[in-house]
Write a structure and sequence with these properties.
This protein is α/β, with parallel strands linked by helices. It contains 15 helices and 11 strands. Helix 4 packs across helix 8.
């Protein structure tokens, strides 16, 4: 009893909050952003082009389209494969709302299926049963940086004549046994928001299997204008622009790309640091009454985007009690994610029932993400581990 009282009255592990998902930024980003501000060219221009070329080269793709968010990238990709009212898109029941919202933006109907308990990824065995005559595409998500079962998904899509899109918001460095995430389906959609392995503050990017699709979407991403302002300037100065389609305001800015250029240059060094942190967490948390992430599958490359704990029946506290305990120690945490049918809006709009997604609902009620970023020092990691031990008590 005295030990418990002493622990409860002890000061937090940290005096100041350790932020969950803070980015790792360096002097190179600051200098590049300043150069953009001093240049006077803040919109889509030369640095966006430079970032697109570098990202395409990193992924082994022929080209890339940088946009304002992963949601924008998915919306464009879904539009390109012809999703509209009455069309169904099979996807996962365990993802961020942006995946579903992008489908809804086209007028299409999202059809979530349950996930694998061990990985949280879309269960390919359940995809086929969800296909109807109205199904037009599969939108898969590589959750937390782990490649989903692309071989099975692509085989199913091929037999049914369906498009495949990859939500790679967590999967910049991810590789499946078939190749790099984002290059396997018809379109790969990436996120560069503040907590991602590569950040531009906000932003996203689209890879396409066919060059002509990418160029068509480039026009749509810039209000349907055939040639952007920077391109027109390079062609000799003032020129009248021509609107050739009804498009969207989805362009990335040069200020954002200025950050991304140097983030990409350090992506592999940061991945190695993430791998070190993953291994350290695995070793230190082994034996505690919680579930740590499954090991990466053989022949794949995990992006190590998030380190997710599972507070299951063997744990001495609930997930929400654990979250409160971590915050009491001034250590930030996240939930990735509550299952989609747990959100009242989606249940009311689509009629989804919790009982149809037992694995996603179970994981959504158990998962807690702890700080996991290259910016963490070894002392920060010690604080996180001590906070976990205290929160479990």
């Amino acid at each position: 009893m005295s030990e418990t009282i002493e622990r409860r009255s002890a000061p937090p592990v940290r005096d100041e909050m350790l932020l969950f998902g803070a980015p790792s930024l360096g002097a190179e980003e600051l200098c590049e952003v300043e150069a953009s501000l001093r240049s006077g060219w803040l919109g889509t221009g030369p640095k966006v082009e430079r970032f697109e070329r570098a990202f395409a080269e990193y992924k082994g793709a022929r080209g890339a389209l940088a946009v304002s968010s992963a949601t924008a990238a998915m919306h464009l990709g879904l539009t390109a494969v012809g999703i509209g009212p009455g069309d169904e898109v099979v996807t996962t029941a365990l993802t961020f709302c942006a995946t579903i919202n992008a489908i809804a933006m086209t007028g299409g109907t999202p059809v979530p299926v349950d996930v694998e308990d061990a990985t949280g990824n879309l269960d390919p065995a359940l995809v086929e049963a969800a296909i109807t005559p109205r199904t037009k595409a599969i939108l898969c998500v590589h959750l937390a940086g782990r490649a989903c079962g692309m071989a099975a998904i692509l085989e199913i899509a091929g037999r049914h004549g369906l498009a495949v899109l990859e939500d790679c918001a967590h999967a910049i460095e991810t590789e499946s046994a078939l190749g790099k995430a984002g290059t396997l389906g018809d379109f790969g959609c990436f996120s560069f928001s503040a907590s991602k392995n590569l950040t531009t503050g906000e932003g996203g990017l689209l890879l396409a299997r066919r060059d002509e699709e990418l160029e068509r979407l480039r026009v749509l991403a810039h209000n349907g204008v055939a040639s952007g302002a920077w391109d027109r300037l390079q062609e000799g100065g003032h020129a009248h622009y021509d609107v050739v389609a009804s498009g969207y305001k989805y362009g990335m800015t040069d200020v954002q790309a200025a950050i991304g250029i140097h983030q990409l240059a350090r992506i592999e060094a940061n991945w190695k640091r993430r791998h070190e942190l993953w291994s350290r967490y695995d070793a230190a948390l082994c034996g505690l009454p919680l579930r740590t992430p499954a090991a990466p599958e053989p022949g794949t490359r995990h992006a190590y985007h998030m380190y997710q704990l599972r507070l299951d029946e063997s744990s001495p506290c609930t997930r929400d009690e654990f979250l409160a305990g971590m915050l009491a120690q001034n250590v930030g945490v996240g939930v990735h994610y509550r299952s989609l049918p747990e959100h009242a809006f989606y249940r009311e709009r689509y009629g989804w029932a919790l009982a149809d997604f037992p694995a996603a609902v179970r994981i959504g009620g158990q998962t807690a993400s702890i700080p996991f970023s290259p910016y963490l020092s070894d002392a920060d990691v010690d604080d996180v581990l001590e906070a976990v031990r205290r929160a479990l008590s």
